[in-house]
């Protein structure tokens, strides 16, 4: 009996290496393998079962009846072998027959053997077979022997995946049956449906070679990779770019802890001692950790496991020299991207034609990546647990974020259901696209202005595609969010000019940067005073811009220059008191003066507006209205402040209704006051993009909406089927004596009056 796992494994591996190098048919190689393992581990029986057509087929054995080879087949979960494969777990039993899952197969003649140990043969985290040893003596195998078996199973996984193993006569093939369909749930971040293959943002490395030619060379490779990884982490910590990845300080701290963990590097070293290549050793240690973690039911530890997985993958990528993200390698098919989290810039690196959807392990509604994906029309499902266990690279996925679910390796029945639903939604979309040329006028002749929200250069195409009346909210901070460094004034000017040029005669309202809080910029050290407890209510938007006026001045100049010869509409976010509006306007006017003094061509007119998203502003509206040229209500922020309910909190997402009396009464008061003062008023929050909510807004007297481009068709259809005057009357009655929410009466009214609600 060999003394250490490393020695046993190494002896087996050295012999396996010779077998693998030979040009032999698959069957002969497997026959040699079971002999070698059986001899070294001093086991009467050694058998290899491989998953073929969904069943675990006995492919080779030493010790069991040879007639059973290719005859004995077990389903996943059937018998000890099936249990090992199904649960991807190791079994080590002194008395196999007493195990509840034991299933006796007479053709094998295995009744003589008492002890049994089996390990899964794993490929891409799934069991593709089982390696088992049996012994006449009823004794448990020692830990070192199990370790050796597991190491050997890794090598076998390479052997069976190797193309050389497929018999040229077409007999034995190890091509595997796809694993069963699965279903995962998450949280809807961006609505939509998408089909595509799973692509990991940080691609998994498929290990090509598992047996080392020279152990010392492999050891050196791992040392060098560790050094490089530690350097990378130190750099991440010192450079702001890390924040752009949407990762947190906490993660970074855990990365650091693991990167310098002696135990981890020692275990990898030991795996190398057993004769594995650097890649295989890293993977071997990771497999063992996964196994242990599966046995521990602790959410905190599981989170840690994610971090170690990330790091282990990083180490693998360094050691194998495959460093790029999936974006850099290019998408080859319609794809659904999978990541723990992403930064907006990382998302934008992907080929938009092929990127169909995104699944995140984390993610939140106001995360930058979500805002950008929504603008790009890419469905996003967030907070999907266990992604890595459920999904493998290249798996077919059907994402339906509206249903908050994803089908993994779907069955034909699932595909049918999905496709039927997709056809309906595409038809509906095509019908809406046809409304491009139609004007949004109510049946009783009231013109509603329907504009789009935009923020990226790519969004501009949506103007013509939707036939919208203009851009009611251009979120200028998007350019800042997708840049690694602060965009220079010239880059800002170019973008603004492109926006105005593509809009042509249609109006554009530029909102000055709304950064800070949850839209922190890594390169802007805005948070020198430490973490904000409540970033949404923190030092953000206009508050930050007025304090850091260098930023605002540069933006003002870029906007004024870009608007030369045109009307320029400027809107300030998060105005809380009228003096803030005055200060911002003065800053712009000073820049206009500065440019005029230098003989620059100026806009024909600059109109200044405020966003109403802080409830306090409504109390001083009489003071604000005479100062502004227009007002736009940001219902996303406004409602979170009205209800004191974080707009990004999933547990509160459905708690308060946009159609609650408090919101609608609040809006009604503001709308009436603005109308009385003759100030144009719009709504630019997400609420306006939902047909029933938009109908309610029209019932309050709102006639300007700025919405996400995908909603333009449905909103036009709603407007064109609506009689506005009776709705306004009905609204007044409901608001005077409302129930908990106006949703029901509004929906019933819509049905009764045949209003088209998508
Ligand atoms: C809002 O708050 O409603 C709004 C339109 O601005 P943002 O979503 O960018 O905060
Ligand atoms: Mg806002």
Automatic annotation (TrEMBL):
<dbReference type="InterPro" id="IPR036618">
    <property type="entry name" value="PtsI_HPr-bd_sf"/>
</dbReference>
<dbReference type="InterPro" id="IPR008279">
    <property type="entry name" value="PEP-util_enz_mobile_dom"/>
</dbReference>
<feature type="domain" description="GAF">
    <location>
        <begin position="25"/>
        <end position="170"/>
    </location>
</feature>
<dbReference type="InterPro" id="IPR040442">
    <property type="entry name" value="Pyrv_kinase-like_dom_sf"/>
</dbReference>
<keyword id="KW-0813">Transport</keyword>
<protein>
    <recommendedName>
        <fullName>phosphoenolpyruvate--protein phosphotransferase</fullName>
        <ecNumber>2.7.3.9</ecNumber>
    </recommendedName>
</protein>
<dbReference type="GO" id="GO:0005737">
    <property type="term" value="C:cytoplasm"/>
</dbReference>
<dbReference type="InterPro" id="IPR006318">
    <property type="entry name" value="PTS_EI-like"/>
</dbReference>
<dbReference type="Pfam" id="PF00391">
    <property type="entry name" value="PEP-utilizers"/>
</dbReference>
<dbReference type="InterPro" id="IPR008731">
    <property type="entry name" value="PTS_EIN"/>
</dbReference>
<dbReference type="InterPro" id="IPR000121">
    <property type="entry name" value="PEP_util_C"/>
</dbReference>
<dbReference type="Pfam" id="PF05524">
    <property type="entry name" value="PEP-utilisers_N"/>
</dbReference>
<dbReference type="InterPro" id="IPR029016">
    <property type="entry name" value="GAF-like_dom_sf"/>
</dbReference>
<dbReference type="GO" id="GO:0016301">
    <property type="term" value="F:kinase activity"/>
</dbReference>
<keyword id="KW-0460">Magnesium</keyword>
<keyword id="KW-0762">Sugar transport</keyword>
<dbReference type="Pfam" id="PF01590">
    <property type="entry name" value="GAF"/>
</dbReference>
<comment type="similarity">
    <text>Belongs to the PEP-utilizing enzyme family.</text>
</comment>
<keyword id="KW-0598">Phosphotransferase system</keyword>
<keyword id="KW-0418">Kinase</keyword>
<dbReference type="InterPro" id="IPR003018">
    <property type="entry name" value="GAF"/>
</dbReference>
<keyword id="KW-0479">Metal-binding</keyword>
<keyword id="KW-0808">Transferase</keyword>
<dbReference type="Pfam" id="PF02896">
    <property type="entry name" value="PEP-utilizers_C"/>
</dbReference>
<dbReference type="InterPro" id="IPR036637">
    <property type="entry name" value="Phosphohistidine_dom_sf"/>
</dbReference>
<dbReference type="GO" id="GO:0046872">
    <property type="term" value="F:metal ion binding"/>
</dbReference>
<dbReference type="InterPro" id="IPR023151">
    <property type="entry name" value="PEP_util_CS"/>
</dbReference>
<keyword id="KW-0670">Pyruvate</keyword>
<dbReference type="GO" id="GO:0009401">
    <property type="term" value="P:phosphoenolpyruvate-dependent sugar phosphotransferase system"/>
</dbReference>
<dbReference type="InterPro" id="IPR015813">
    <property type="entry name" value="Pyrv/PenolPyrv_kinase-like_dom"/>
</dbReference>
<keyword id="KW-0963">Cytoplasm</keyword>
<dbReference type="InterPro" id="IPR050499">
    <property type="entry name" value="PEP-utilizing_PTS_enzyme"/>
</dbReference>
<dbReference type="GO" id="GO:0008965">
    <property type="term" value="F:phosphoenolpyruvate-protein phosphotransferase activity"/>
</dbReference>
